[in-house]
């Protein structure tokens, strides 16, 4: 990985500043041009609900906004159930007329130094391109699958119970019931993002432009779970938009209900966890067809001791992590002692086997999604003793694959 001791300066006519509320339309123009979109007034109104100018930085060239980065505040769940405040980086764009002159690097450096100064231990983002964010210390932390099921062929194993208890509700009732269920789901799911009220409002606004030609949302609710979907009548497809369950009964009951929708040929879902239980519930597991696999959230650790002592470990681990962070210089040597009941992590030069690790790899390990052995084989983690690597791999993995839930 390149080392940037002296990053190239941005052009002299470009200055960075914090955004103001009045900047939103200009920010939307830069972002829309970068992503090939013209935002309508309605879209801007929704975006405005989530826009907090204090969390946005802009790059200005002679009075014109040419670059932007922003963030949204979340709490994110760690393995073991604790949660940490995290900033979700968003709205990252630089005008095509100003690219590859270091503006993104300058914006991210200032933004991330601000996060660290505010005591934020972890930042997150979803990436438009996979090659951008490794250099800034971000590693893939959650992954999800896009799946399709031919409904008529998807029978459950004969011994799978039918817990029932599902009701169909309208959006107003879902809005009332879902936040509490979602919070219970998030508490037991590593990588899950909390969802504030204003996110629920935008999430359930269900605008026409967000429906991809399908119907408005339908909702199924169980006391411990919910599932929202649309119907694409032209292709007889039920598109699952969101599902959150806090118990296995709710999970089975909701899948049973959605797979009983007459007149639907195909049930599709875009963001199933990598190790979803559904395929093991089916008499023929092959009926759950994976048609895509995507990285979800990328994580970057800003405060190594705070992040690593807040999570729990599947088995006992005692190592000195030698973390390399060329972007922000927040690495160094930290002794991590942890297990299922607790963990501590503090600066220390020695005392346990030393593991060399890139910041990007630490981000991938944070929620238990990545395999330390794979990272070692890829050269992002260095350890001399294979027994230490075995212990590290076992300790960082969790019994649940991480999921982030909320797109931002
Ligand atoms: C991605 C984007 C913000 C980069 O802005 P930029 O000002 O040109 O980036 P910088 O000049 O600061 O480059 C920073 C580093 O990232 C690299 N980089 C930037 N964009 C990249 C890309 N699309 N792919 C791979 N590397 C990229 C640069 O080579 C540079 O590397 P180095 O500093 O290690 O040499 C800009 O190209 C853009 O707006 N793209 C379209 C929108 C988008 O994809 N945004 C990201 C949303 S997650």
Keywords:
single chain, 30% strand, NAcTrfase_Eis, 3 domains, seven-stranded mixed sheet, 408 residues, Aminopeptidase, transferase, Nonspecific Lipid-transfer Protein, Chain A, binds coenzyme A, acyltransferase, 11 helices, alpha+beta
Can you describe what's shown?
One of its GO terms (molecular function) is aminoglycoside N-acetyltransferase activity. This is Putative acetyltransferase. It comes from Pseudonocardia hierapolitana. Keywords: Acyltransferase, Transferase. The protein is built from 11 helices and 19 strands. The two termini are 28 Å apart. The protein is globular, with a radius of gyration of 22 Å. The strands form 3 sheets. Strands 1-2-3-4-5-14-6 form a 7-stranded mixed beta sheet, sandwiched between helices. Strands 8-9-10-11-12-7-13 form a 7-stranded mixed beta sheet, sandwiched between helices. It folds into 3 domains: 14-142, 3-Layer(aba) Sandwich (Aminopeptidase), CATH 3.40.630; 144-294, 3-Layer(aba) Sandwich (Aminopeptidase), CATH 3.40.630; 304-396, SCP2 sterol-binding domain (Nonspecific Lipid-transfer Protein, Chain A, 2-Layer Sandwich), CATH 3.30.1050. By secondary structure, the chain is an alpha+beta fold. Mean pLDDT is 96; it is low at 1-5. The structure holds coenzyme A (COA).
Identify the CATH architecture of the largest domain.
3-Layer(aba) Sandwich
Order of helices and strands: EHHEEEHEEEEHHEEEHEHEEHEEEEHHEH
Please identify which CATH superfamily of the largest domain we are dealing with. Answer: Gcn5-related N-acetyltransferase (GNAT)
Hetero groups: coenzyme A
Give the strand order, joined by hyphens, for the main sheet.
1-2-3-4-5-14-6
User: Would you state the CATH class of the largest domain?
Assistant: Alpha Beta
Share of helical residues? 25-40%
Radius of gyration: 22 Å
Figure out the total of helices: 11
The largest pleated sheet is described as: 7 strands, mixed
Q: Looking at the structure, what is the overall shape?
A: globular
Mean pLDDT: 96
Total number of beta strands:
19
Report strand %. 25-35%
Total separate domains: 3
